[in-house]
Every structure is written in structure tokens, then in C-alpha cells.
Amino acid sequence: MKLDPFYLIVDSSEWIERLVPFGVKLVQLRIKDASDEVLRKEIAASKSVCEKHGCQLVVNDYWQLAIELDCDFVHLGQEDLADADVAAIRKAGLKLGVSTHDGEELETALSVEPDYVALGPVYPTILKEMKWAPQGVEKVGRWKRQIGELPLVAIGGLNPERLPGVFENGADIAAVVTDITRNADPEARTREWIMATDPWR
């Protein structure tokens, strides 16, 4: 499966409405601690924007709502994967991405035959407290050799200047959160990312 090398991750449909029209083709909606009503509205609004602009929407964690709202891609962390009904996700036709940080988690991810595997944090990240040290681009290379043709997402501390390192070591996709959402000009930074990832399209 071919996915765009630029993977934007945001926490609201407002961000999706704001940035997807600039040419984003792969975006994850990652919302924490919201009611089902809010989540439904956010997912539905995000899906509408993505459909309009030919962008692939990935719903983080909330696989039941992703099925209910007829989405086609869900991303699960390891704890969420343990609690999820993978058979139901597959039966509904959803594609599945899984986060990994170490060898044991990679084995767990591969056991459910995901559509991509994410590895992180590659570099130090300010997004959240992590119990894992930065993985480094060398580990990106090891992961890619292990998973073969399966798409590999690199995440954590990435910026356009660091992209050659992760792609040349085997990553297929680079995911970004704070480098865009905390930038003084998120729209301009989004365009920079699209241009920077263009050689890997």
C-alpha cells in the first residue's frame, strides 16, 4: 500500500480544515479525553474535509467510532491495540496502523498484520513524556529491514531538515505534530513539509 510520505497529526477538525487544503494527503485525527458526542462531530467534520480534498484520514484510538462513521483507517497504540477487536476492524474493511517502540512491541504489531508500523520517537520530542529514549535513524534502518515492504512511519522530533536522514535509512513516511502546530505560521510550514517530502513521492 502506498501512502503519502508526509503524515500530519493534529488534535481537531479545525486544524484539518485549516491545513489539509494546502495539499496534505495523509492526516491523523488524534483527540484525547473527549465525549462520544464531541468525537463524533470531530471525526465527521474531518472526514468531510478529507473527502473533499482527496486526503486519507486516520482516526487515532477510537476504532468503534471509526467503524460507525464509515472511516477507512485507524491508528492504535499498544495499549489500545490490546483492548481492540482487530477482527471487527478488519471485517469493517478498515486499514490499521500501529505504534511501536521496541522489539516486543514490533512483534505484537506484526502479529495483527497492520497496514503500516510507526516507530518513535526518532528524535527528542516535546509532544509528551516518553518512557523511551530517542530511537535514532539507525533503528529506523533496522526496523525497515525487519518489516520489509510494510510501510514504516518515523515519528518524533522531526522537521524538514531531518527528513533526508529518516528517509535514507528506510522510513517511507514522516509524521509530524508540533513542528507544524506550534509554528508561528502553520500554513507556511505545512507547505515546507510538502515540498521537503516531494522527492519521496
Oligomer: single chain
- Assign the CATH architecture: Alpha-Beta Barrel
**How many angstroms separate the termini?**
13 Å
Biggest sheet record = 8 strands, parallel, barrel
Query: What is the mean predicted local confidence, pLDDT?
Result: 95
Q: Are there runs of 5+ residues with pLDDT below 50, and where?
A: none
Count of DSSP H/I helices: 10
Which series of helices and strands comes N to C? EHEHEHEHHEHEHEHEHH
Radius of gyration: 16 Å
Structural class: alpha/beta
How many separate domains? 1
Strand order of the largest sheet: 1-2-3-4-5-6-7-8
DSSP strand count? 8
β-strand percent reads: 15-25%
Shape type? globular
Topology:
Elements: E1 6-10, H1 13-19, E2 26-29, H2 36-53, E3 56-60, H3 63-68, E4 73-76, H4 78-83, H5 86-91, E5 95-100, H6 103-111, E6 116-119, H7 136-147, E7 152-155, H8 163-168, E8 173-176, H9 178-181, H10 186-197
Parallel strand pairs: 1-2, 1-8, 2-3, 3-4, 4-5, 5-6, 6-7, 7-8
